[in-house]
Fold:
Amino acid sequence: MKVKEKKIKDKFQTLYEDTKPKPNIFRNCFRAFWTGGLICVIGEVIFKILQYTGLDRIQAVNWETIIMIFLGALLTGIGIYDKIGDYAGAGSVVPITGFANSIVSPSIEFKKEGYIFGVAAKMFIIAGPVLVYSISSSVILGLIYYIFRW
Structure:
């Protein structure tokens, strides 16, 4: 019986490999590139508008970051960012709006479980490891810099 099951599995796997659609790599890269670039251009336009209103560079950068995170969270909340992600792939994940999406999406998904065990507990399910490793590596690099003073 085991030999027969193995042959069936092998036959199915071969059939699956032959019929599964092949990704269009050029199209996917192009979509990711221009969508990610467009998100960055929007961020740059917001930055220039903030500078034009009289904010200095540091304040404009801070407000631009806040606005881009808000826009990413808002678009996720109303269901648009998922459509952008389906279209652009990694082009929507890399900018700061993708980080906002990675925090808001699990919160929305688990909202039915309540605000404590749903939203709060699941909020950092995707972004949590990124935060842990980025903060840890920045501390380690900061200590190395402090010790060797390059």
Summary: DSSP finds seven helices and no strands in the chain. The CA atoms of residues 3 and 9 lie 10 Å apart. The mean pLDDT is 84.
